[in-house]
Amino acid sequence: MIYLNLKSIFEAKGIDNPSHFLWKNGFTRHTAHNLLYNKTEGINFRHLEKLCLLLGCSPNDLFTWHNKDQTNVLPTHSLQSLKKEKSIGSITKTLQQLPVSKLNELRNFLDSLSNAND
User: Fold this and answer.
1) 3 state DSSP class of 63
2) What is the structure's pLDDT at 54?
3) pTM of the model
4) Helix H or strand E encompassing 2
5) CB atoms < 10 A from the CB of 74, how many?
6) What is the CATH number of the domain that holds 6?
7) pLDDT (tens digit, 9 = 90+) per residue, 3-54?
8) Angle 64-5-31 from CA coordinates, rounded to 5°
9) Are residues 64 and 106 located together in one domain of the fold?
């Protein structure tokens, strides 16, 4: 089954109140609730695009796949890329635990990633 993976993305982005974030960015309370708690049978393409633009991600980042039926799916099947082995988690918590020297290394690494995208 394919599910929306919004809560972990909001956590990783440091967005403490996802509902408020969605309301502030034009989603109704009802839609925000349904999206955050996987209470929907589908997703509107406009909503999908809006989420991707707001969160700086691709549609694949928004979804996770769980093989609940335990069907035989080849390891090379495209759905395997939607399996999330580990939650993204809060980057802020991890950063707070790093020593300053590691933070400097991280800054250099992030700068190199940013320069590679230019």
Assistant:
1) strand
2) 95
3) 0.69
4) strand 2-4
5) 8
6) 1.10.260
7) 898 988 898 888 989 999 999 999 999 999 999 998 988 899 999 999 999 9
8) 130
9) no
